[in-house]
Specification:
Number of helices: 9
Distance between the termini: 38 Å
Shape: globular
Radius of gyration: 18 Å
Number of strands: 10
Strand content: 15-25%
Helix content: 25-40%
Amino acid sequence: MVSIIIPVHNAEKFIKDTIDCVRAQSYEDWELLLIEDGSTDRTMDVMTAYLEEIKDGRMRVEKRKIRGPEEKNFGAARARNLGLALAQGRYIAYLDADDRWREDKLERELSFLQEKNAGFVFTGYEFGDENAKGTGKIVHVPKTLNYEQALGNTTIFTSTVMIDTEKIEKSLLEMPCIKSEDTASWWKILKTGVTAFGLDENLVVYRRAGKSLSSNKVEAVRRIWNLYRRAAGLSVFESVRHFVPWAYRAVRRRV
C-alpha cells in the first residue's frame, strides 16, 4: 500500500481538486493522510464536508493539536512527520495541497521503483498556472542522483517522490524544521549512500498560484546557501562550488 501524505494549510481553494486527483489514480491500493496544519480559512470545513460526501474509507483528516495561543502552525516538515508516523503503507508518497498528479502517477512510479529495485524515486513535472493547467514548461530529471550530484541539482520535487520503507528506514524520512526542509531531507537520505532514481516522465503539475516566474529569487538563493552551510555543513569554498551549477539549473527550469 502507498501512504500519501499531504500537509494542508489555508488550501480551501485547491484541496478538493487535489483530493480528486488522488481518487482518480489508476493504482488503487493507497491511503490518504490529510494533515490539517492550523489553517485560518475554511480548509478544515471544506475537507471534512467533502470526505463525508464521497465516503472513501482510504482517506482521513488528522488535525494537529494547538499547544498554546502563540502557536500558529507546525509547518510542512512537522505536518509531514506526523503523517509519516501515522502511515501504514510500505510506500510513502508526498503531495502538496495545491499540486496535481496525473491519473497514472502512482502506477507508473511504483512500477518504476520495483523495476529498478530502488528505495527512492522521483519523476519529472510541469509548471502549471493557478488552475493547475500545464504551461508547457516541463522539468526533466536525470536517470540517477547521488549525494554529490544532488548538492548541485535540486530537481527532486516533493510531490514527485516515492520511498520504499523496506529499503530506507522511516527515521531517515523525518524532515528537519528548517526552510527547504524537503531538499535537506533528500540530501540526508542520499548522504547514507542511497541513489535516487529519476523517472523522466511528466506525471505531476506544480501549481504556481499567484506567482510569477521570477518570484522569490532572493529567498531561494538565501535558502540554498543556508542549506549548504548549515544542513550539509559545507565550507564556503564547497558551497560556492555547488552553488554555481545549482543556480544554472534553477534558471533553466524557470526560463
